[in-house]
Design the sequence.
């Protein structure tokens, strides 16, 4: 039973009942996919995994991580661009399949992260956990996974009032477990149909379902942990968010985290041509097709005689 109480704006203490349920769900979401990963490795050891399973893994990883990065994060939490309701809802459903919490809950927690970044009140800062290597390790663990087990409830009405009033987003949030189930069913059915037997269905469930959830979890959590500790900081901001090129590749552009904390509502997180930002390219493609509009972007100028770009805040 935790006695930790956080008195920060918009953070309330829950009842013991909801705490237990919340922690059991978090534990299941962490442990089950990880156990599946171990089982998958053992299976791979004895019998090579086929192209179908790898395609299911890659396809489901891409679809659900894009649901998180483009949908949950840039569109819904930061309102970085506008799109038609059907695209917004599909992105929110794909994000839900990643099993990182209902969209309303995710957006409220994420907005709290930006409000208190690396200060008391930040739900998952790797800092503030002691000095030296031990403190860094403790902090990395907390930011990566440990924070999921800390008992705090973020007030949705405080951090996401407009989402709470949004019927579609509210309904998608309410049906969270259904989307997870569908996200597991899709690779199971495809795997079964491709192989024509039950083994194919089981491998599809394992690789495209549970292993994929585990990988997407760790990629997203690494943005919270690694990208607040390791990387470059071209913009002087009040927190420790850093640009990490490896995480930028794995997390579809979200690794340009110093850029993001400097310009949180920007639709693009990669600001230079070499800063690969797959989520940003998806948004740009939607814009080119007329399916996304009103993109919020930093205004980039090249001042006379200077070889470096300056980013100015506009519409941020
Ligand atoms: Zn951050
Ligand atoms: Zn953000």
Sequence:
């Amino acid at each position: 039973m935790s006695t930790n109480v956080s008195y920060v704006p918009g953070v309330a203490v829950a009842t013991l009942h909801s705490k237990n349920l919340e922690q059991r769900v978090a534990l299941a979401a962490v442990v089950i996919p990880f156990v599946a990963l171990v089982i998958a490795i053992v299976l791979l050891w004895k019998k090579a995994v086929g192209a179908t399973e790898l395609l299911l893994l890659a396809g489901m990883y891409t679809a659900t991580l894009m649901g998180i990065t483009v949908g949950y994060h840039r569109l819904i939490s930061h309102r970085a661009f506008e799109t038609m309701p059907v695209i917004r809802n599909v992105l929110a459903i794909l994000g839900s399949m990643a099993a990182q919490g209902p969209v309303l809950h995710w957006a409220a927690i994420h907005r709290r992260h930006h409000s208190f970044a690396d200060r008391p009140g930040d739900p998952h800062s790797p800092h503030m956990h002691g000095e030296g290597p031990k403190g860094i390790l403790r902090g990395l663990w907390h930011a990566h996974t440990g924070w999921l087990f800390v008992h705090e409830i973020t007030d949705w009405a405080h951090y996401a009032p407009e989402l709470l009033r949004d019927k579609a987003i509210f309904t998608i949030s309410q049906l969270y477990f259904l989307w997870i189930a569908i996200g597991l069913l899709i690779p199971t059915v495809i795997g079964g149909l491709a192989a024509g037997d039950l083994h194919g269905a089981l491998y599809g469930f394992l690789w495209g379902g549970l292993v994929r959830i585990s990988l997407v979890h760790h990629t997203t959590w690494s943005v919270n942990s690694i990208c607040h500790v390791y990387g470059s900081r071209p913009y002087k901001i009040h927190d420790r968010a850093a640009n990490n090129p490896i995480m930028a590749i794995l997390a579809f552009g979200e690794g340009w985290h110093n850029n993001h904390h400097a310009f949180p509502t920007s639709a693009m997180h990669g600001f230079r041509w070499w800063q690969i930002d797959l989520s940003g390219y998806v948004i740009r493609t939607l814009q080119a097709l007329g399916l996304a509009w009103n993109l919020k972007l930093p205004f980039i100028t090249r001042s006379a005689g200077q070889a470096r770009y300056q980013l100015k805040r506009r519409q941020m």
